[in-house]
Design goal:
mainly alpha; 6 helices; 7% strand
Length: 179
């Protein structure tokens, strides 16, 4: 402030414009709003795909700098969490009865119990593969940064669609997921 102002005028200037003279720490949301233009996306109706209006997107989620390593980590984490193992059935899990196929003695052949034994065709495995969980914990900061990088890159490519609700969503019958 110039020296030509008195103390009263200086206090009045300081109280009238606090943003100019007082320094304070900006939050991330305020910093993005102040230094970057807001981003908008069309809100679509899910039933008829008509445009409902513009929606302002969150600046932290849709204006991040995309990092390939974070995107890769999130995609790898999602794949591992949704991974399903094939299972190999053990002899007790196969269909069929436990009836003895032939007598124990008197036939001249080896003794057998039932047709689900591992050495028969279509028999069960002695120690079959069991499904296991391949998911792992991921750091929350990496998860948020990866999702915001994915959202930002999808928005920049023009592949981001925002729908109003999913109440009219039905799974196509060709997928066989309706139960």
């Amino acid at each position: 402030i110039n020296a030509e102002y008195g103390e009263e005028e200086e206090e009045e200037l300081l109280s009238s414009s606090p943003d100019v003279f007082h320094t304070r720490t900006l939050t991330v949301h305020e910093a993005f709003r102040r230094f970057r233009p807001p981003r908008h996306a069309w809100l679509h109706s899910f039933s008829d795909l008509s445009k409902r209006g513009l929606v302002e997107l969150h600046p932290v989620m849709f204006a991040a700098n995309p990092r390939i390593d974070q995107i890769y980590e999130v995609i790898k984490w999602q794949d591992q969490c949704t991974r399903e193992d094939e299972i190999a059935y053990m002899r007790s899990e196969l269909p069929g009865s436990g009836r003895k196929l032939r007598p124990q003695k008197g036939t001249g052949m080896a003794r057998i119990k039932d047709k689900r034994a591992p050495h028969f065709q279509y028999g069960g495995r002695p120690l079959g593969r069991r499904p296991r969980d391949h998911g792992y914990d991921i750091d929350l900061n990496v998860l948020v940064a990866g999702f915001s990088a994915i959202c930002t890159s999808k928005y920049a490519q023009g592949d981001f669609y925002l729908v109003d609700s999913l109440k009219d969503f039905t799974i196509p019958p060709c997928l066989g997921l309706n139960r």
